[in-house]
Design goal:
The protein has helices spanning 2-30, 47-54, 56-88, 92-107, 110-123, 130-154, 160-166, 171-182, 184-200, 203-208, 216-222, 230-271. With 272 residues, it is mostly helical. It has 2 domains: 59-222, MetI-like (MetI-like fold); 229-272. Helix 2 (47-54) packs across helix 12, helix 3 (56-88) runs antiparallel to helix 9 and helix 6 (130-154) packs antiparallel against helix 9.
Length: 272
């Protein structure tokens, strides 16, 4: 029975991988198609990349998507980290209440959040555009950062900061030199989730933006009614950039981990 289960598991895994990655491969291949057809490959060509490069709307969409995602990630990570650290030092009742409130944006449907933001900005007579889009992304990214960091803070020794201050460190130095390095994996995880959520968002962005400010998801939505292979080229560029980013992150993490292991080994040898 075990060999049969192993074969079944292998086949199931292969099917799942094909199901997940076949659309990506299909998109990349047909981004180099010479014709407008999305089903028949007529020959290799980069005409759709040229068209994408000459399309101002697409270039603006790429620019706004990355700028908003990066800014929202940085700001939400800073706010979320400080909030999580503050909550870890708060009393149980306050911490429980804030954690419950923090979970509401994640459980709330995006359409409800988007309409709520639209009504909120309209009530304040705020012109929707880049600023409102950025604020909306920061708003829904912060809970994910807090949720990623809180487990790391719970696993920390609560006396670490006090021990650092007893040794002469200021509260800020204890925070930067002691607490933050210990929870860095949670911070990085929260930042990556925030970037992904911001980069991928459509519903909330659709209701929170205006004045010609569009991200990639919105511009793809506006092109859904007509065949435009430039979308394949745009998607391929995004896939390539994200893949390069993930590779660089993994390489950086591996280098840092190797340096840390060498440093720990050197300290152990000195101690012996």
């Amino acid at each position: 029975m075990k060999p049969k289960k192993r074969v079944f598991g292998t086949v199931l895994m292969i099917l799942v991988v094909i199901f997940l990655y076949a659309p990506i491969v299909y998109t990349v291949i047909f981004s180099f198609n010479d014709s407008k057809s999305l089903t028949k490959f007529a020959g290799f060509s980069t005409r759709w990349y040229t068209k994408m490069a000459n399309d101002r709307d697409m270039k603006d969409a790429i620019y706004y998507t990355f700028v908003v995602a990066v800014l929202a990630t940085i700001i939400s990570t800073i706010i979320g980290t400080l909030t999580a650290i503050g909550l870890s030092k708060s009393n149980k009742i306050l911490r429980s209440c804030v954690e419950q409130v923090n979970e509401l944006p994640m459980m709330n449907p995006d359409i409800v959040t988007g309409i709520g933001l639209l009504m909120f900005f309209s009530a304040l007579h705020v012109d929707k555009g880049f600023a409102t889009l950025l604020l909306a992304h920061i708003m829904f990214c912060i809970p994910y950062v807090i949720l990623s960091i809180m487990p790391k803070l719970r696993s920390l020794d609560p006396n670490l900061a006090e021990a650092a201050m007893d040794l002469g460190a200021t509260p800020m130095r204890a925070l930067v030199k002691v607490i933050v390095p210990q929870i860095m994996p949670g911070i990085i995880s929260g930042a990556l989730i925030a970037f992904t959520m911001s980069f991928d968002d459509f519903v909330i962005s659709y209701f929170a933006t205006g004045n010609g400010v569009k991200n990639i998801s919105i511009i793809v939505y506006t092109m859904r009614m007509r065949v435009n292979p430039s979308i394949n080229a745009l998607s391929t560029v995004v896939i390539a950039l994200l893949t390069i980013g993930l590779i660089l992150y993994n390489v950086f993490s591996a280098v840092v981990a190797r340096r840390r292991e060498r440093e720990e080994k050197r300290l152990r040898e000195q101690a012996e």
